[in-house]
Amino acid sequence: MTSPKRVGKIEFGLLSPKDIRRMSVRKIIWADTYDDDGFPYPQGLMDLHLGVIDPGLRCKTCGNKASECPGHFGHIELAKPVIHVGYTRLIRKLLRVSCRGCGHLLLSPDEVSKVLGPEDERNEDTISEKDIKKERVCPYCGEQQLKINFEKPTTFSEVMTDENGRKIEHKLTPADIRARLEKIPDEDLRLLGINPAVARPEWTLLTVLPVPPVTMRPSIILENGQRSEDDLTHKLVDIIRINQRFKENQDAGAPQLIIEDLWELLQYHVTTYMDNEVAGCPPARHRSGRPLKTISQRLKGKDGRFRGSLSGKRVNFSARTVISPDPNLSIAQVGIPLAIANEMSFPIRVTPFNIDEVRAMVLTGPNRPSLNSPCGANYAIRPDGRRVRLTEQTKENIAEMLEPGWTVDRQLRNNDVVLFNRQPSLHRMSIMAHRIVIMDGKTFRLNPAVCPPYNADFDGDEMNLHVPQTEEARAEAELLCSVTENIMSPRFGGPIIGGIHDHISGIFILTHTLRWFDKSGVLYLLKSSIPENLPEPGKIENGKEYWSNKQVFSMILPDGLNMFYRASSCKNCDKCEHENCERDAYVKIIDGNLICGTIDKKSIGAFDGTILQRIIRTHGLESGRQFVDDVTKLSISGIMYDGFSFGIDDEDLTKIEYGQIDDVLNSAEDDVERRIRIYEEGQLEPMPGRTLEETLEMQIMQVLGKARDRTGDIANRHLGLSNSAVVMAVSGARGSMLNLTQMAGCIGQQAVRGERITRGYEGRTLPHFKKNDRGAPAHGFVRNSYKSGLTPTEFFFHAIGGREGLVDTAVRTSQSGYLQRRMINALQDLKVGYDGTVRTSGGKIIQFKYGEDSTDPAKGCFGDPVDVKGIVESILKKEVA
Amino acid sequence: MSTNFSVISHVMVPDHQIMSVEEIDELLSSYQITRDQLPKIYHDDPAVKEVGAKINDVIRIVRISQTAGRAEAYRMVVKRPKK
Known about the structure:
The complex is a heterodimer of chains A (881) and B (83).
Chain A: H1 17-23, E1 74-83, H2 88-97, H3 109-116, E2 147-151, E3 155-161, E4 167-172, H4 174-182, H5 186-191, E5 205-211, E6 220-221, E7 227-228, H6 231-251, H7 256-274, H8 295-299, H9 305-310, E8 318-325, E9 333-337, H10 338-343, E10 345-349, H11 355-364, E11 377-381, E12 387-389, H12 395-401, E13 407-411, E14 417-421, E15 431-439, E16 444-446, H13 451-454, E17 462-466, H14 471-481, H15 502-511, E18 516-517, H16 519-525, E19 539-541, E20 544-548, H17 549-554, E21 563-566, E22 586-590, E23 593-596, H18 601-604, H19 610-619, H20 621-642, H21 655-680, H22 692-718, H23 724-731, H24 737-744, E24 748-749, E25 751-752, E26 755-756, E27 781-782, H25 792-827, E28 831-832, E29 838-839, E30 845-847, H26 868-876
Helix pairs in contact in A: 6-7, 11-12, 15-20, 19-20, 21-22, 22-24
Chain B: E1 15-18, H1 21-31, E2 40-42, H2 46-51, E3 58-65, E4 69-78
Parallel strand pairs in B: 2-4
Antiparallel strand pairs in B: 1-3, 3-4
């Protein structure tokens, strides 16, 4: 279980000036890069000793060409030391814990023992800044300590008190700081957790600056032949220029003021060279005004070296395009365009057994003539590893040379296994293995029933496809990630794949109440999954055979299925009428025959799908997949048998209903007015724990909410199951009765944070109202419906209320995304072993039994490990309470 | 303010027991692990103090689980690092 090698320790240290000079191959003194002939200046930033980037030139250090030379460091001798921004925290700490006179740690040996324990039983613990009291006297030399102030980004100063008791700040130059840090003895550094052998603190102040090799800051040549230098080179040019000027002024004996200015400027350039996003420091900019991308920016963040280049890489053998639906595919298939199938390949080794087959592929070459023709090949790899591209010209020759030991990159063909993915990949069902079907067109095609796990729709979504490149990878993809294996989600123990939208409307229309179909009708419905034998007809009338809609549905159910449950359309009546339910919402399946009840979202929908769940439990995943394929096709036939559409006139009501709705809304607004009057007269009784205003607001919200619901009831009385929107809402396909209420009846009160809209102008929401109007229309009550249309003020209120939802989703997605990232980083290397333990890669145990009970949530039943009720009912063939 | 009550006797606190050397050896061999691969618990954990376990002892924690009935976990007592 344990990994064969273990990292013993990692040592972090600083580069000493000596180290920097030792690794340097050249001292850099010129700020210029190239001369007029385009040749690098010796001892300039592009010196040929630092490595070469131009093809043809040879490195003066290692003698290699551009492709082989790794690059070499140079160095700049700084006129005076400057602070390294990355270490300002450490410098501050060290200045505060060491004596300004003798450099000792400001704790006597006894005090150290008190913090860390006696000398012989100390562990890894170290002294921190907090262990030392402020402005104390040095226990070694008796010097009074001063407070050290640190100002971002790189200014340190001592606070002194003069004769008059006033505080004056005395600035410390980097040279002062360096001198102080030099005095700290090695033993004291060890107590602070610093190993002086590899990291003397004075090395955090730079006296010599390493110049990175040109290979890490290559210049690019623009189309107009001009050279454009890397941001780092620009920054180094600045540093050298100022350094040069600094030296000249120093040698000429310039006044202190000028020296200090130049010193600060040098500090600024070195700081921004390391990190161009330091707080309290204006970022250095390119001539165009774009901030420069310096060392720290190259490493940090999403597109930085770590997250962008090392953890995340681009891959070959992948494709991406827009997705579109194809209900005729199986859920385990994916349609891919011929152009993609021709470009992508799978390597096969040539053996004596397949050589003829492979030779035919090579002869077909890279351009497969049509969708149905056998696949061609793109490359042939010789036994010595040389890769030969197949073209129309070379293919015959290569086919001739082909013999066992070669490998041929074969194009994709029908039934190849590929991995299909949609970002964001939030759970394991975001990457599933499909089998390909090569198709016309330029989009990936998938069965709409697999949209829920990918969270895909067809409004322009794109998806990625990857081709496993070995037989092992193929087998693994098929066995672990295939759509069939992933129907059951470990998220909630139910099927995540199932009917959506039209599938549910269709199966609802088909199975609702009792209907009869003649033979041609039955065959039309079951056209894609015709059983070997039709069952006995349900009735024979005038010598003609008829089958019921429930019989038709039963034909796609496997044998031996017994279920009793209530459908989505169940209203949870006080007394259940079971078989005699007026909504036909009581579902009873015995021996794979639907006896009564309507099939809807509860039965076959994604996330619910109780029938699907039971089939998988009793008949296995493959039967489950077959059922999804059959039911989606049956429901599409079902919806097409009758036709299904929705238009603006489906929201029409009669004059009687409009009158009733008006009455309801008028009386509600009057009621609101009445309550406001009571409040203004001071007669309102506050509710416990609420102020008068809160009580009034709650009452108004309640009255208006009720009024909206009543308009909905009025509208619904008129709109029955003949209305498509009602069918969709009742079956659970899409939308709700509330949506319908808002379309046909009244949109209702608009709210922000659960309260009526109050913000806007002084004392009113919009200038159309009088100040301090508390009435319903002035605070966001929309009495119109979407059908009748909104008044201008209503429109504004609706926009205000609608905005809240948008803001919420935006905030939620970013927060949950970051939460997910942290989770993944914490858990990504955990693994469940064969003994059921959850372990880290180092073999450390996290859980002795996965989830304490070793239960796979995907194999349970909506959270319960065993579906006891279902098993009992299945055996007794009758419902148990 | 110091109240003296036993955290172990609270219903929400699972049972903690110190394991004997033989039990530990059996545990380690049954999972094929070394001591440092065990989950850890700090020496100043209230329940650890209560059962009187010392650093490097191994503690068996028995929880009543809704799904598993009885779930056992083992933790080695370690010193809490400073800060």
